[in-house]
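Q: What residues go here?
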């Protein structure tokens, strides 16, 4: 799902819509099957695009930004070069 931009957009848009419809304060993603550098790159893109959408949506919604949290699988030896966390701290 995350390897295609159109699928990521659909997931992001629908998750934000559902969160607002039910009055959630945020969204939590649990992805335990990201095992390759390609998966990690795609997950990083998902989180960057999700955060951008949440930021933009909050301005248009006149409300607080939704919180985004995630539980992800991490193996230091495999992900030292591919893990996306360094790009997330800016938000």
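A:
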């Amino acid at each position: 799902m995350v390897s295609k931009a159109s699928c990521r957009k659909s997931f992001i848009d629908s998750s934000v819509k559902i969160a607002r419809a039910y009055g959630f304060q945020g969204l939590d993603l649990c992805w335990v099957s990201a095992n390759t550098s390609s998966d990690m790159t795609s997950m990083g893109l998902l989180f960057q695009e999700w955060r951008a959408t949440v930021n933009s949506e909050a301005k248009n919604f006149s409300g607080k930004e939704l919180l985004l949290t995630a539980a992800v699988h991490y193996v230091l030896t495999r992900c030292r070069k591919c893990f996306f966390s360094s790009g997330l701290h800016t938000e």
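A: Context that may help when evaluating the design: The chain has one domain: 5-87. The chain has three helices and two strands.
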